[in-house]
Protein 1
Amino acid sequence: MALLGPRLVVAGTHSGVGKTTVATGIMAALASRGLRVGAAKVGPDFIDPGYHRAATGRPGRSLDAFLAGRELLPGLAAAAARGADLLVVEGVMGLFDGAGLPGVDGSTAEVSRVLEAPTVLVVDASAMSGSVAALVHGYASYDPSLDVAGVVLNRVGGAGHAELLREALAPLGLPVLGAIPRRDDLVWRERHLGLVPVAERPAETQAAIARLGEVVARHVDLEALLRLARAAPTRRAVDPPSASFVGRCVVALCAGPAFSFVYPENLELLEQAGAELVPFDPCRAARLPDGAAALYAGGGFPEVFASELAANRPLLDELAARVSAGLVTWAECGGFLLLCESLDGVPLAGALAGVRARLGDTLAIGYRRATTRVPGLLGPAGTELVGHEFHRSTVEPAGDALELEGRFGRGRAGFSSPTLFASYLHQHLAARPVLAQRFVRAALDSLPRRAARA
């Protein structure tokens, strides 16, 4: 049993208002004062938690009601806050925007309610003055069970503009906790699937976050934020389930700028099961880590680094040979593309013979329920999985190992065998640690066969 202490949620009226800027800036400003700041993100995000980690020096966690289950959210939040003075949770999309699935809200508002956390509303005030009061009043009063405790005004035009906004909001009695000026140097770089990951430009990002922390410290009332966080009721939270120890084995972990999309909880569960995770960068490593009994290839942007990956032919050839020979492999999204023969004609590993990938203009996004159609690495036929897809690429053939169901339809995709699971499905293992155990068990079981072949 864990305790969930001081905490607050940074939410937005809609996507694009600057939630990540404000949340990361608050984290950096508090950390620069010597506070230990825990960080979490609502939803199935990988990129924003990277910014949180750069600001706090701690792993950025994910709080997703669909992937992990509503009942695990307090425990996951407590894990994110363990050893910290407070927890700052960044919301997803607009405050009340959710998954739109039966029985699963998934919105920032739901997470705030579950965590009993005060909510700070970020408003893009760049094109309004008096209308800000109507907007904020609507968000603050829409759900009486939600504690909207204050407002941060973002992209404010200057001192006069800030004063107009404060005057308009005064009758609401809701504290204005800050007014952050509009500055071009506070805008993060973006690409086709969102912000550019920290792993691609670590030094540049670290400098930007330090600058952002200084701006937030000047324009946001940090003491008021701390009072809000400390006013949240201390509550007990059940620890998320752990993985049982299966046995020791080396697992090669795709890392580096092209493969940075992995949930920290997944890595922890694999380690609990006995995996010794050895990171390697497929763009630069000459070979797989010594003694690797398995490969875990998470997501990322291999399309951005396709030429560098293609140039590392010795590593790609080893991947193709080892995976084809039965190296236990779990590949999702970007890792899935790595195993294909090519991406937009650029040759990659070719571990999935005849499977080619290409980028397109259509974004495949959403939660998925999946059922395995064949016995495989993650369990017998009929094993139920949950995950999230977020990609603009497609593969041909798509595979048919999974029966997928999302909000807008059904389909089949993915590849599976007793030693391989490859698909676009990003899975968060907090609610299913048995999958980590099965992966490690398969790696251990493969060692005698591999030794005999050697």
Protein 2
Amino acid sequence: MMKSTSYLLTEFFLLFILLPASFALDYSIWIKMPLALAGFAYIIFILKRVERISFRIKKGIDWRAFGKRLLITFIVIAIITSAYVLYEDASALFYVPKNKPQLFITILFVYTLLSVWPQEVIYRTFFFLRYEPLFQSKALFVFVNAVLFSLAHLFFKNTLVIILTFLGGLLFGLSYLKFRSTTLVSIEHALYGSWIYTVGMGQMLAFPGMEAPQ
């Protein structure tokens, strides 16, 4: 029943289209938060009771291949984003780590634990496990995953955020497709997201401490 095509399509629509899109609407955060928590609780329930997965680090991971891929991609991202910040507002470059190091370290920890890992459980572990069999094309599946990942950030109402999260969704989707590890894709997500904050682009993602220098 909970794995039938009709059930999966309904679940897909409610969790990954209707709910995220609704967060872009103007209604109380005290309604949005319980909805988000209920959705996440449902996902954990399905993963544990229906799909019977364990949240353990996968054995046999090719850390070397992952590290090489991560390093190359990160260098490219670091160069592009640094150039962007320098062009847009050079005073913002590395502003938070230089001026608010304690806040910077705290936010990185909170971001990784409370934002990155839940997102990867939802958009990679759960999404791939539940819906990959519905798609014949792997490329189309990863593309749809990236589109929906960007949709989850629609509430920021920022075009650059939508573009960046779509590109991030492609990277994370391809990583999960290759390594099938929530741990690895969470590391990748945390690194890129933390870099965005570090380099001086965190304000668009509501990271604190990004006030323009006086």
Protein 3
Amino acid sequence: MLIIASEFDRHAGSRLSGIEIVGCNLVDASRGPSRLAAARGEDAALRESESRRRKVVINGRRVRTIDVHCHCVIPETLALLGLKVSDQRGPGIAEVGARRIREMDEQGIDIEALSINPCWYHADRDLVVEVIRINNDRLAEFCALYPKRIVAFASVALQFPDLAVQQLDHAIRKLGLRGVAVGASCAGDEFSDPKFHPFWAKAEELGILVFIHPQSTPELSKRFRGNGWLANTIGNPLDTTICLSHLIFEGTLDRFPGLKICAAHGGGYLPSYAPRSDHACRVGPDQCTPSIQLKKNPTDYLRSLYFDTLVFTPEALRHLAAEVGPSQLVIGTDHPIPWSPDPIGHIMSTPGFSDDQRIAMLGGTAAKLLGIKNE
């Protein structure tokens, strides 16, 4: 797990906490030159990175690759929440900068979209204001340090939807972050709850991507005990499955049809068994709410959502594409957690895709969703 904040950056040779950058590719000119300037542009380490980077070529065309699912932690906010960096999972937890870029080069990833898994949904209002401020400021600083390689999803305090709306607006409009990362529920409440409607409305208004990453399924913690890391192995995909099902069946996606949502881990289990959803209210009408009349079949909504490609086998990827459409797929590695050692090969080796479909999955679709312009 990448650490960013006041940890010493071995690449830039300066402390990020002193940077006067206000966003990805944005500099606050009123404050004068930043100490970060020397680390940007034609930095020697980045030039070295360019020479060693694994290049992806399809039919003679260089393809830019973008990973939407990769994590980081920020020590300052973990400390505020009473959490320890040492408890966070992932190799290379104490290193930033050059190592991160090197690992991207080895995998063939040109751009990563960083996100922070929300661990603050139970924090009180005053505390979470500071947590989110630091998270988003540090993410913006890191984007500015590596403007051609790193973008980021904003953090928001969804337990206070009015606050989350303000935080999201500031992060996108002022800090230049490219979307927002959320859990799959918030302190036991489903995101389909009407109290979250202002947040969804703001995300739709801004036209940004909402990246949903699960946090296991806490209600089943007792059953997840034992061998196999079931809280993650089963709990994470299940958490996403429940979240997306509520957003569909409660009419949230009808209410906010312009939402752009990307679900981690291939959308959990939902795409693999989605057709059952189309029969639920026919078979069990007493279990459905008459006042909620969906505009489409439940499976049709999957083709308006986006999913990462972290599904492990060519057959799983082929099936996911068959259910949701290749146009809805984007690279997801879970970097630096080593679930996906060869995310590029995973897409390239799966049969049945056209060159254009592979190009879109590798980075074209993500570039549009994250507002990343062609160089």
Protein 4
Amino acid sequence: MSTRRDFLRNAGAMTGVAFVGCNLSNAAAQTSATSRRRQVVIRGRRIKTVDVHAHCAIPEAMALMGLKVTPESLLIAGDRVRMMDEQGIDVAALSINPFWYAAERDLAAQIIKTQNERLAELCAKQPERFVAFASVALQYPELAVQQLEDAVKKLGLRGAAIGGSVNGEELSNPKFNPFWAKAEELGVTVFIHPQGVPPLAPRLKGSGFLDNTIGNPLETTIALSHLIFEGTLDRFPGLKLCAAHGGGYLPSYADRSDHVCLVFPDRCKDIVLKKKPTEYLRQLYFDSIVFTPQALKHLAEQVGAAQIVMGTDSPYPWSLTPIDHILNARGFSDAERAAMLGDTAGKLLGIR
């Protein structure tokens, strides 16, 4: 029987990073070792494509909370690069969904240190293919501030990935203001990825994986709405926030947010916003995981094509053809397609 150390070494391809998801052993087997790297060219210009929404895991850090990555669900870095080559993705911005928000301070600090160091090691080994968002223990805001600064200044990570709430507390809670202030000061991107809405769990049982299908976009919708209506985006206008899954449902029904204070002014008396709620969407960024050309066009009409960045949700197969999703959608200029495919993300993440 292999030891835990052997398992971690095999799982992480020397760096301790594993790309985990659904049926990845099958996906890896279908990826040819001799696959050619797809290059994306628009009107003669080679586009460096960037995937801002790519998951990974650090088995060593997960083990600290009694969690593990099963061997059958592992995909090592070399296999992930071959899959990126086939899809036409030049650079993946790696992030880890927070599983540590319930951890006590010392344990959370150890988890974050391990994860950020392993992410930095992988990015250093393959800097032309990977960048990463830092993990932070946001349940301890002052600790998260230091973790973000260390990750950016010492480890070269490009920002932070956080959940859509923290142990039931909204991201607009003033206790998180020191973190927002530090992110704004550093000029780095914060990627918001939902964790579902646990209070709705009883209603989301049954077929359809509704706690993910509905719950994840709903949490993003709630998180962004609070950041707008509680004045967080006014307080920190320089924040670079990127919302997963096209921002959830908010861009699809954002105009209702403009009308609520007109219809129910007593519900908006605690704070005076500097602009209409829909206008804040144009200072946020959104990934392209909205599934249809019509949805992508609608998102662009609401937030601006310059605010959309390509995402795959890799290795989960939500978006298997992310390049063609953007290239084949009607109504975009070449410059807008280039922006969505990589130009905007390249600027946000400091990718040359």
